[in-house]
């Protein structure tokens, strides 16, 4: 059986696109988050088969036996995001108690929206490839991407516990630009419960306050708006309902560990990185 360790991904320490992957069983030293970028494939993890597409995400823990099978055609490719166990534990510390254990005790497999897929690819396509580069800026973006994916996992996990329909609908509103431009009061204005009850119930199911959840959604959307160089920082701030430019910058810094200006400059200064296979030489494990 093959085993992939950190030397294997030395020249792609954060993420890579895999084209026509090998079909051998393998294990990894690190956590691997994967979804299809083009086409679909059958992925088997610890004996359980799942179909990987653009709308499904699979999280594979270290040591799990994983295998790529039956990909759709020669144009098939999928995205891998790599996370060390230490880093994942630090990220999970920002979520409710037991988050790491939920990830480790299951093989997370859940759906994402086209908006989320495009958001992930917009950011991940700008990570350097074929280069042994790691720095604080890339670490911060990587941290935020993985944290957002964990948020999606927790939301999906909670659905299996009879989450009320109105709570699910409320959370989904944060992908709608009409609500992203407004406040929590506007977000819940037509829900027939008190403000306090709504906020308590939301935190019970999602592990964060409704205000934090909305701000996070605004910041995620702002990362896409920052790709439009015709929009100024202050225009983006007001478009997303922030009262001042400074409050937007402060919130952006909190999630991305970098200012929106530097974020924009870094992304727009890079040409789009094409797809590539980064796997290097795997080590055989007996």
What is the compact description of this entry?
With 286 residues, this protein is of the alpha+beta class.
Describe the secondary structure blueprint for this structure.
Blueprint: E1 2-4, E2 15-19, E3 26-28, E4 31-38, E5 41-45, E6 48-52, E7 56-60, E8 66-69, E9 77-83, H1 85-92, H2 99-105, E10 109-111, H3 114-124, H4 136-159, H5 165-172, H6 177-180, H7 184-187, H8 195-206, H9 210-225, H10 233-239, H11 245-256, H12 260-268, E11 283-284
Parallel strand pairs: 1-3
Antiparallel strand pairs: 1-11, 2-9, 4-7, 4-9, 5-6, 5-8, 7-10
Your description of this structure?
This protein has 286 residues and is of the alpha+beta class. It folds into 2 domains: 2-135 and 273-284, Jelly Rolls (Sandwich); 165-268, Arc Repressor Mutant, subunit A (Orthogonal Bundle), CATH 1.10.10.60. 43% of the residues lie in helices and 17% in strands. It has 12 helices and 11 strands. The protein has a 5-stranded antiparallel β-sheet with strand order 2-9-4-7-10. The protein has a 3-stranded mixed β-sheet with strand order 3-1-11, with no helix packed on it. Helix 1 crosses helix 4 (136-159) and helix 10 (233-239) crosses helix 11. The longest helix has 24 residues, at 136-159. The chain is globular, with a radius of gyration of 20 Å. The N and C termini lie close together (6 Å). Residues 270-286 have low confidence and may be disordered.
């Amino acid at each position: 059986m093959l085993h992939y360790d950190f030397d294997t991904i030395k020249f792609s320490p954060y993420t890579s696109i895999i084209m026509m992957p090998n079909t051998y069983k393998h294990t990894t030293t690190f956590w691997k988050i994967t979804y299809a970028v083009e086409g679909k494939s059958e992925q088997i993890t610890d004996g359980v088969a799942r179909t990987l597409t653009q709308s499904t995400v699979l999280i594979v823990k270290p040591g799990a036996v994983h295998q790529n099978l039956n990909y759709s055609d020669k144009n098939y490719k999928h995205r891998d995001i790599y996370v060390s166990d230490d880093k994942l534990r630090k990220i999970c510390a920002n979520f409710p108690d037991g988050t790491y254990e939920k990830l480790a005790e299951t093989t997370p497999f859940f759906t994402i929206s086209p908006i989320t897929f495009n958001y992930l690819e917009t950011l991940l396509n700008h990570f350097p490839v074929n280069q042994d580069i790691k720095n604080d800026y890339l670490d911060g973006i990587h941290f935020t991407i993985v944290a957002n994916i964990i948020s999606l996992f927790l939301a999906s996990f909670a659905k299996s516990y009879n989450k009320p329909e109105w709570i699910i609908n409320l959370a989904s509103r944060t992908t709608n630009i009409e609500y992203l431009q407004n406040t929590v009061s506007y977000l819940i204005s037509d829900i027939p419960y008190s403000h306090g009850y709504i906020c308590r119930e939301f935190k019970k199911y999602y592990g964060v306050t409704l205000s934090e959840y909305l701000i996070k959604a605004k910041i995620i959307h702002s990362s896409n708006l920052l790709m439009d160089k015709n929009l100024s920082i202050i225009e983006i701030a007001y478009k997303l309902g922030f009262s001042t430019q400074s409050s937007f910058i402060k919130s952006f810094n909190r999630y991305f560990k970098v200012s929106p200006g530097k974020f924009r400059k870094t992304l727009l200064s890079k040409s789009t990185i094409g797809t590539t296979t980064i796997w290097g030489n795997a080590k055989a494990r007996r």
